[in-house]
Every structure is written in C-alpha cells, then in structure tokens.
Predict the structure.
Amino acid sequence: MEQMFVAPPETEEDCPVQISESAFRQGLTGSTERFDLAYRQVWLYAMRHYPSMPPELKRKDNLIAQSNRAKADERVVYEMAELAQCLGFHSDEIRDLVNQSPDRQIARAALLQAKKPGCFQYDARVFETLID
C-alpha cells in the first residue's frame, strides 16, 4: 500500500482522522506519520465491515461442495475506496471503484434478477436508461 500512498510535502499538514462512520476531524501530522495513520484507518474500516466484503472465489473448477457465499456489498466496497482516496491512497483500482456508483450497480442487479433470463430480454439500447 505504500506504493499507492501519495505523501504530502515534508511539512506538517492537516490529516483527516475518521472519528465516526460519517465524521472526520483534522489532525496535524508530519508526512512520516501520515501514511501510518491513513493505513490504520483503512485497516480499521476493513475490520468493521469485513462480513460485508467476502473474498471472491478464485477457482471456478473446484468441485467440492461449499456453502452459498454472498457477494460483497457494493456500497461498503465503494465507501472503503472513497475513504482510501480521501486519506491519500491512489491507484487505478481505487479510482475505478470510486467512479462506479453503487446505486447504479444495485439497480442493474435488481433489473437483471427481476425477470427470468430465458423468458425475458432487455433491449440493450434502453437498458442503461432504465438504471438511471
């Protein structure tokens, strides 16, 4: 994660510190402490929300019976990416997650699950307008 962290110049600067799920305060830190503080905040977010972010299965050819695994909550993943970006972490993956609206993803999934695939097909030209 150090490679993704964009440190401010070598001066003391306000650093956002999450004090509740939706509130921040600013704390004066040096650039060496800033990464450590940012990393810990992302780690704490992950620990608070880990039940909502199960890992995706890597192998599809595994024939062993497994429990029904839930998908990651798109909003939780989006908010974690947003927090990481706010704290100074930057990568293509973080940017892609922040640019995806969880509301649109949920609406898309609901539309696709509402109709049986073999019995109904959306018009590709109209489908995106239904999501908005």
User: Anything to note?
Assistant: The chain has a mean pLDDT of 83. Helices lie at 31-49, 74-87, 92-99, 102-114, 124-131. The chain has five helices and two strands. The radius of gyration is 19 Å.
